[in-house]
User: Fold Lipoprotein from Streptomyces venezuelae.
Amino acid sequence: MRRFPVCLLLLLGLVAGCAAPADRDGAVRQAVAEWAAGAAGRPGGVPLESWSYEVTSVEVADGGTRATAGAELRYRLAGHDAAPAGGARELSLAAADGRWRVTADRPAAGALPELWDQGPVQVVQGRHALVLGTGPRDRLTGIAAEADRAVPAVTAAVAGLTGTGGAGATSATPAAAGTGATAGTAGTAAAGGAWATAGVAGGGATAGTGGRAWAGRVVVLVPGSVDRMAALLGSPPETYRGMAAVTTGRVGAAPAPADRVVVNPQAYQELSEEGRRIVLAHETTHVATRPATSASTPLWLSEGFADWVAYRDSGRAPRDIAPAAARAVRAGRLPAALPGNAAFTFGGDQEALSRAYEESWLACRTIAARWGEPALLRLYEAAAREPLPTALATTLGTDPAGLTSVWRSSLTTALS
Assistant:
């Protein structure tokens, strides 16, 4: 009978030992929550509607004095994000005076960094654009001004698309494709080698769209260098050299996006004033029309449409807009077919890449001229929902062969 109290004491000791880790994990989670709610856990000056860390794992070491917590960061930029952005994080904590304190916060292994991981962020709020950057403030102010000019022009051009018009599209409060980057891409254009842009669809940092009206706002991120731009996007720097901007976002998915336009400051600074306008109008078009696209949208249509919007009121001659395509036509190298998706791959022949974008722009220009701008908008939407032959038949009354024939004739006429 005297064994019972001993066994009971041992059992209570085991229970207490099992409870301790749970209590400790709870204390770590509480410390992370308190840290995230305070100024120390947030990027200074960035306008946030929401900001939270959901702890997913806790590992304690060094006799219970240090801990590592895995967490998911979720945040929305105030007035801009209709869905959360964020990613996986790893936090270091230290115990002192009976309390846990966060001592470091970094991207988890394999996760993309946030802009503020690269240094203090400056914020420039325009009428239609929010610009976040780590470089000189005057550079950010200039980009905000260009984006503010781009948004109304893009809004006017795409007003006929489902989910892009309405009251939201004229909002006076400021707010990118491929790559929140998790699925698909929409490319980089080099207009005669003068400027280059890219839309990266999908990729961890942002969420997709779902047919809601575009709010007429764009968020622009300006890292300090092309190397830092590449780090934000999870690709080698060589991918983006000579490319002025990319747009991140998930193509044609719900809910509405937290798109970002990411600027390569080195390439952007080399552009003329018109080049900068074209780049931001192209990227803003990707942001504005995200609900009207899907993974089925041919890249010649999504990229050509973005350039068509950007050049719509430029007054420039086709040979000036499409010099690479013009050189090919004058040399007797008339393309047999519209550019395939593989033609928009970066890191290869720059002249061939330029031709792909220019030929795509001319295809959209030709459609607008022959069938009308409303028909081009209808095709843009229809191609996201159904096979291209069906979309062409229902919107233009033609087929791929018919469109290709008209387009090839326009190449000869406009570029010879």
Summary: The domain at 122-415 is CATH 1.10.390.10 (Neutral Protease; domain 2). The chain has two domains: 19-111, 122-415.
